[in-house]
Design brief:
alpha+beta, globular, three-stranded antiparallel beta sheet
Length: 110
């Protein structure tokens, strides 16, 4: 796995940021990635304010870090999108299991 040297972090979630993601992808030969998008997230900001929205993003990042494979790295792609990058060799079944685990975790929590 590549080292995350000189990479930058998202100030809110402390996940690696978009620039770090681009840097990582430039050095990867083969990579698995999972794009996690929070549907209609702007509704949270509109209804409850940005402070509550920021807290929700912090919780989402925390939950993803709890359920992601240990070999994966979390990046905040933009406002309500996160990306998991993993250079491990996964089978199709492994990838489906990881995706279902993440999804089921959020379905249970919400």
């Amino acid at each position: 796995m590549n080292e995350q040297v000189n990479q930058t972090y998202d100030k809110l979630t402390k996940a690696f940021d978009y620039n770090a993601l681009l840097q990582r992808l430039q050095t990867c030969e083969k990579v698995n990635y999972f794009l996690l998008n929070i549907d209609n997230f702007s509704n949270i900001n509109d209804a409850y304010g940005y402070e509550t929205g920021d807290e929700a993003l912090l919780q989402v990042a925390s939950f993803i870090n709890m359920v992601k494979p240990k070999t994966s790295t979390l990046y905040r792609f933009n406002s309500d999108k996160f990306v998991l990058i993993d250079e491990s060799s996964f089978s199709k079944e492994d990838i489906e299991h990881i995706a279902n685990s993440i999804l089921s975790f959020f379905l249970i929590v919400i």
